[in-house]
Design a protein that fits this description.
Number of helices: 5
Number of domains: 1
Number of strands: 8
CATH architecture: 3-Layer(aba) Sandwich
CATH class: Alpha Beta
CATH superfamily: Collagenase (Catalytic Domain)
CATH topology: Collagenase (Catalytic Domain)
Radius of gyration: 15 Å
Strand order of the largest sheet: 2-1-5-8-7
Strand content: 15-25%
Bound molecules: zinc ion
Order of helices and strands: EHEEEHEEEEHHH
Largest sheet: 5 strands, mixed
Distance between the termini: 17 Å
Helix content: 25-40%
Shape: globular
Length: 176
């Protein structure tokens, strides 16, 4: 795992988080942007970075799913120095998992798939969760959006907010 020093110091200014998307309604992207801005106020500055094409080589025809690892690598090559989140509407998986809602690399970026997320509430929670990982948060056992969700049920049961402990960690991210 990287440490806090792997992101260039920004003198406590919010760090830019580029929001990329593929085949997602503009209204949905606006909502995700608002929710992230509100949750991580002062920590990140979320901006719409634009639509990008899915990577064909990430598609696995045997599973009819996209390989989250390949997508994330593609995203990290594409974005420059900032943090990035890529929201897509295809089912994704990673090694050893039938599917994942999201896939992140600490202090770099994440993929969020809304494919299995049936409600707006779930999309928002998982967006907050993935960005939490981008900001270095690990899974948390408190009443917290960073609880690990292995299923839709888990995702439904967890709250949509960060616990005090996780919140504190995200602010130390920029004040480092
Ligand atoms: Zn997670
Ligand atoms: Zn927490």
């Amino acid at each position: 795992m990287n440490n806090y020093h792997s992101v260039p110091s920004t003198d406590s200014k919010p760090i830019h988080l580029a929001l990329f998307y593929t085949q997602i309604a503009d209204q949905e992207i606006q909502i995700i942007k608002q929710v992230l801005t509100k949750t991580y106020s002062g920590v990140i500055d979320v901006y719409k970075a634009g639509e990008i094409k899915l990577v064909d080589e990430a598609y696995n025809p045997n599973r009819n799913q996209y390989d989250a690892d390949i997508l994330l690598r593609y995203l990290l090559e594409r974005k420059k120095s900032e943090l990035a989140l890529w929201v897509i509407n295809k089912d994704i998986y990673c090694k050893g998992m039938n599917f994942v809602f999201g896939y992140a690399m600490y202090y770099k970026g994440a993929i969020l798939s809304i494919h299995r997320l049936q409600t707006q509430d779930l999309i928002e929670k998982e967006a907050i969760h993935e960005v939490g990982h981008i900001l270095g948060l690990e899974h948390c056992t408190n009443q917290c959006v960073m609880q690990y969700s292995n299923s839709l049920w888990d995702a439904k049961m967890k709250p949509s907010f960060l616990c005090e402990n996780c919140k504190r960690k995200t602010t130390s991210f920029i004040n480092d």
